[in-house]
Design a protein that fits this description.
The protein is α+β, with helices and mostly antiparallel strands. The chain is built from nine helices and eight strands. Helices cover 53% and strands 24% of the residues. The chain is rod-shaped and about 160 Å long.
């Protein structure tokens, strides 16, 4: 009997030690403990060494670090009826552990599902060109909408980044043709702009040369110098246009209209 009594006392001591040991919990700096007293919210404890009464209090650990969540690829139709697949990455953290545990069953799953549906609805309101080029604006809109929706869950969405946009092969070829046509249009506009500027400069030069006729002779001499410097057997001598007009007048004086010309006789 004495031995059984000692075993019983030893068992009691072991149970008491285990009970006392289980009362002490250690929470890291980035962790908080949501304490429930008989099923009702009691308080938030941590970090450090805390005391939890067994069978009376229960604790749920909450990580306060920023969570990086990959949003799966979503099939969506843009406003210009183009089917694309878009995936993104979501950054958020828990600000209020009480709301994150009490107001939502699983805040990680809820945030993931909300990010997927929000991305489909927001990107579906924009055209393909905006999705491809205005990613910063779209990221800001997604972050703002998600942050407002998760505020009641005690979650702060810090950033949303669209990672990749997948297109069909036909759409990629169409975009390539569009880019090629845009490049050709720009080249034509630049060429036409250059021609216009050159015409304006030539017009201005003509006005200046018309004020000083001697300058035209200097241009003739400069042209002869440039031609003679090349290895060419043909040298072109530019003649003034006035000389041609003088020759035409002389030809008209030596060949007056003859009433007996063959043209009139016929």
């Amino acid at each position: 009997m004495m031995i059984d009594f000692l075993y019983f006392q030893l068992l009691i001591v072991v149970l008491v030690v285990m009970l006392l040991t289980s009362m002490f919990r250690i929470l890291r700096e980035y962790e908080r403990g949501v304490i429930f007293l008989l099923g009702r919210f009691y308080k938030i404890k941590g970090p450090g060494l805390i005391l939890v009464i067994p069978f009376v209090q229960q604790m749920v650990r909450v990580d306060l670090r920023i969570v990086t969540m990959d949003v799966p690829s979503q099939d969506l139709i843009s406003r210009d009826n183009v089917t694309v697949r878009v995936n993104a990455v979501l950054y958020f953290r828990v600000l209020d552990p009480q709301k994150a545990i009490i107001n939502v069953e699983n805040y990680l799953e809820a945030t993931s599902q909300l990010a997927q549906t929000t991305m489909r609805s927001v990107l579906g309101q924009h055209e393909l060109d905006e999705i491809l080029s205005a990613r910063d604006t779209l990221n800001t809109d997604l972050q703002r909408i998600l942050d407002q929706s998760t505020d009641n869950w005690g979650i702060k969405v810090t950033a949303v980044e669209i990672k990749h946009v997948d297109l069909d092969e036909s759409m990629i070829r169409a975009i390539a043709r569009q880019a090629e046509a845009e490049r050709a249009r720009r080249a034509k506009v630049i060429h036409a702009t250059g021609e216009l500027e050159a015409a304006k400069q030539l017009l201005e030069a003509a006005h200046i040369l018309a004020q000083q006729p001697e300058a035209i002779q200097l241009r003739y001499l400069q042209t002869l110098t440039e031609v003679s410097s090349e290895n060419s057997k043909i040298i072109v001598f530019p003649l003034p246009m006035e000389l041609g007009q003088i020759l035409q007048r002389l030809a008209g004086q030596h060949n007056p209209a003859d009433p007996k010309s063959p043209s009139e006789m016929t």
